[in-house]
Structures are given as structure tokens and as C-alpha cells.
Amino acid sequence: MTAPPTHTSEAPEPGTSRSGVTEREARQVAEAAREQDWHKPSFAKELFLGRFRLDLIHPHPVPTDEATRRGEEFLARLRAFCETRIDGALIEREACIPDEVIAGLKELGALGMKIDTQYGGLGLTQVYYNRALALVGSASPAIGALLSAHQSIGVPQPLKQFGTQEQRDVFLPRCARTDISAFLLTEPDVGSDPARLATSAVRDGDEYVLDGVKLWTTNGVVADLLVVMARVPRSGEEKGGITAFVVEATSEGITVENRNVFMGLRGLENGVTRFHQVRVPAANRIGPEGAGLKIALTTLNTGRLSLPAMCVGSGKWCLKIAREWSAAREQWGRPVALHEAVGAKIAFIAATTFALEAVVDLSSQMADENRNDIRIEAALAKLYGSEMGWLIADELVQIRGGRGFETADSLAARGERAVPAEQLLRDMRINRIFEGSTEIMHLLIAREAVDAHLSVAGDLIDPEKSLGDKAKAGARAGGFYARWLPKLVTGPGQLPGSYGEFHPAGHADLSGHLRYVERTARKLARSTFYAMSRWQGRMETKQGFLGRIVDIGAELFAMSAACVRAELLRTSDDHGREAYQLADAFCRQARIRADELFARLWTNTDDVDHKVVKGVLAGTYAWLEEGVIDASGEGPWIADATPGPSQRENVHRTIG
């Protein structure tokens, strides 16, 4: 298994491509961009290897007193702003964030939450940045998306990690107070497949000339600064490759050709941006030529935490509405919450919201401490948060019944509380696609999870390696597995007294859940090893299997985080008994899901599904489509992105 396959739909057979880029070439580009080394320990990486390193997350890390003071002070100001200045219903109706609201956010310093104080930012920790996003996102998801895109993946983060001091001095003060930034990678025919990136950047003296089209540019309609990924052609000794640039949004030759409209997030300033002969100073290049994709992926390592943070905020709101509504609504002589069918949904919302907050806070605090490598933890948080957050929103709509399907405006018009449950469902749906779809996240995490195996045995399953290389790999693998496999047989999870500190008197017993995590981590590692032995080079095509492996790991990570958080709250005398109850309920639910996933590792319909898919693509079942009207409009499936001057009006607008 090398780099993950890219598109999850319209995929040709292995080795073929309509674009001229082979599947192997696409994998090699993605593989070259990922971080190759592990310089710090990783709890999640160890978990996938069958090693339950509780010491890496327990005792739960906590922010410093100073970080807490500054964070809480800002949250108080932000809450007051959200309650008095943000009208989420207005943003939903008009599909636009008022300029005065954005101006107020700038005055509050919200654009610079993650930017260091030396550049005029607030210098908040990842923990408090995420809490701020959860808060403002609950007032308006569109504002949450604007602030997240600006700071998590926009100009500030890549400059913080890869920019020169001169670039930081020039751009970070602007980003902290006045300028909105956007990140431009996706193109009309390029999603998670960077090998086919078409936007070009040609060196011309002390400048680069950019040409191309970028799609789904969140903040792009109102941005002042852009991070643009473009391909620099090879020239002389320069290897070229995908490269990152900071670009002024008002540069000559840039046209925002469309403001895109979506199912949800109706205030999102997302567009299509065309570059025609746009001149960018070479001094604005971030890092060396060819480092752009690595910069993008590294930026996302912590940037991905912002999305699950907002899912936590949504879960909290869903719990509040579910509690209040289910107590007020009566059926058959008692509140609907007391009917088991509805009660189970409420219990799921409460327990899962607790676990999601545990995952995000733990991952964020580890990011702040910088002692651990959290690339897998952040990816798991994004994957798990978006999937479980969607289920929470869906369950709330079901609990609300017909009122869950009715808009808030309609509810208010007939005299009832304006609860925007259906809006939440629409707004939450994109999270399973944003910043790496669930399918792509499965493959990215799976690649990292099997990295240890590939480092010692990768050449054994690489068809292009020589017999000599395979022999050397076999020797390395033999030594590694001789040491590793025996450790997967027994462990603390089989000892009844293990993790006893998680069973304090008067509290639910969480120690049994941690023993389950330890045992199951070893079982997960054995299953992965068996699959690699069975499928070898074909392992990378077993996306269904890899997805289930990752989902099991996500459940184990969430269980671990929930237990550790419950113990933190107990020792800090902050709702400890209730936290233990929620962690216990969540772990019981998660164990059932994990056991079901294990059963589906080897008993599934993957092979027959593949046959059906081939039949669908071949038109074998086209007769099944008869009897309906296709309401789609005319036009190509993918818009033409041929470089050249724009023929459309520039809809970019500057917010003063």
C-alpha cells in the first residue's frame, strides 16, 4: 500500500486514466507529499499497532493558567458579541454575513485568534481557538466556516509553519486584524488527486505568472489574501512541482467568476476564481518549489481540528433542544423522552457529544503541548466528528418529528419556537466532504496506520522491486514481526485489575472499557497483519476493509478520550460522577459498533458490490432507471477550466 487512491467516484480501472496521469503516478505524488518520519510518539499510531499507550494521554493534559485566563476572557467577549450582534436567521434568509458583523469580528480580534500576539493576534491555544469556533459556529455556521477557513487553512497557518520571517512580518499583522484569507487548491477536475493539478506558475525573473481556475474557494469571494497551489514546470536545476504562493486577491488578472450556492451554509462566501497572467513576486512563494502539497497536508494536521470542534458545538445545541422539547412534548400520557424509542436517541446524543468533546479537547491539548505527533489523532477527530455529528443532527430531526422538517421561519409564523433543526441538518452535511471526504480520510488514516509495516516490508509487496530488494525486505520484516507478533497475544486487557484507577468508589466502572480497548487494539493489529499477508500488493484496493479498520480505531480512540476526560473532570471536581456516567454509556455504545465492524471485516458484500458497480458503469442495469424524469439541466459534468482571460463579471467584493 503506497499513497491512498484519490477520487472515490467515477474511478477507472487500476492503471487507466482519462487525464493522462496513471494511478501509480497519482499515488507517487501523494506519497511524496506526506510526512515520512515519526519524530514524536503518537497515541493513535501505537493503537493501530496493537499497543495501548495510555501513558501518552493520561493524566489528561491541561492548558496553563495563563492560557486559560486569556482564553476564557476572549470567550466571554465573543459570547456577548454572538448574543447581541449575530442574527443567524438573517444570515440564513439573506445568504450573506452582513459587512458590519464581519467588521465587528475584526474589531474583536476574531481574525487573529491563532496568530501570535507579536503580530497583533490573540495568540489563543488550539483548545480555546476550537472552543471559540464551537461558540460562534452555534450562532452562525457560516461565520464559523469563515473564521476557520481564514485561520486553519488560510494564510496564517502555512506562514506560521513554513513562511520566512519577512513574510510573517508583512502578512500576519494584516491577517490578525483586517484581511480575510482563503486557501485555493481544488480545481474543477481535481479534488483529492493533486497529481492532476492544472493551475500553473511559470517563473519570470523575480516573479511567477499564474494561470488556471480554482473551485470551491471558501472565503474567496471576499478574501484579501489567497494561498494558491500551482504547478511550477521543471526548469534547469529547479525540479518544479506543486508550489504554494501568497497572492493579493486584487491582483490584475484575478476574477471571481461565480459565488457558489449550496444546500447549507448559505452565508458561505465560496466561489470560482480564475487566474490569467497573474504576476506574483517570488518573495511570496511559501517554502521551496515543489513543497506546496506537503505544506497543505501539514497545515491540515491541526487545521482539521476546527471542523470537529464545530461539530461539538452542534452536538451541544442538539442536546439542549432534545432535552427541552422531549420534556415538553407528551404522547400517550407522558413526555416523549420517557418512551424508550426516543430515549435511546437522546442517550446517543448526550453520550456522543461528551465523547466528541473529549476527542477534540484531548487532540487540541496535545497539539498545544507539541509533545506528540497528532496527525492521526486530528484526522480521526475530523472523520469521527463529521460522521457522528451528522448522526446527532439527524436524530434531533427525528425526535422533533414533522417540526424537525419544518423551517424555523415557518414554525415562528404559526406561533411556535423557531428551532432551525432542518437547517442544522443541511449545514452539517458538508462536514463529511470538507477538508477530506470520509472516504479519503479512511485511506489517509489507513496509510498512516500501516506505515510501520510498509517501512519494513513494503518492498515485499511492491511489484517493481527486484528480487534482491525483496530479499532484504524479507530479512527486515522477519526481525520486526518476530519481535512484534508475540506482543499481540496477551496484555493488560486480560487482567481483571488493570486500569483500576478508572473505577473509583461511587462512580461507574470505566476500567473494563479500557481493558476492552487494550484487547481490541491487539486484535485490530492482528487483523491488519493478516490482511496484509493475505492480499499483499492488493491491500491498497481493499478500501472497504481499510475503512472498517480505521472506523474501529476511531471508536477505540474515542473510548480512550472519553474515559480520560471523565477522570480529569472527577479529579478536578467538575461533574465527575456525571462524566463517568456519560463515558460509560458512550463506551457501551461504541463497543457494540466496534464489534459489528469486526464482524464485517471478513463477512461483507465487498466483492459482489464490485461486480454490481462494474455492471452499472457498463450500462447492464440501465433498464432499472426507466420510468422517471431526469430533472437535471443541460451542460457538461465538469466545467471547462481552460486557462485564459475571464469572460465573466468579477463578483469579488471587499469588506471594509
TrEMBL record:
Q: Which GO terms describe its cellular component?
A: cytoplasm
- Give the reaction(s) catalysed: a 2,3-saturated acyl-CoA + A = a 2,3-dehydroacyl-CoA + AH2
Molecular function (Gene Ontology), one example:
flavin adenine dinucleotide binding
In this protein, which residues make up the domain named Acyl-CoA oxidase/dehydrogenase middle? 182-278
| Record-annotated Acyl-CoA dehydrogenase/oxidase N-terminal domain positions | 72-177
Keywords of this entry: FAD, Flavoprotein, Oxidoreductase
For the region Disordered, what residue ranges are annotated?
A: 1-37
Which InterPro entries does the annotation name?
Acyl-CoA_dehydrogenase, Acyl-CoA_Oxase/DH_mid-dom, Acyl-CoA_Oxase/DH_mid-dom_sf, AcylCo_DH-like_C, AcylCo_DH/oxidase_C, AcylCoA_DH/ox_N, AcylCoA_DH/ox_N_sf, AcylCoA_DH/oxidase_NM_dom_sf
Task: State the name under which the record lists this protein.
Answer: Acyl-CoA dehydrogenase
Q: Tell me which species this is from.
A: Streptomyces tsukubensis
Lineage of origin: Bacteria, Bacillati, Actinomycetota, Actinomycetes, Kitasatosporales
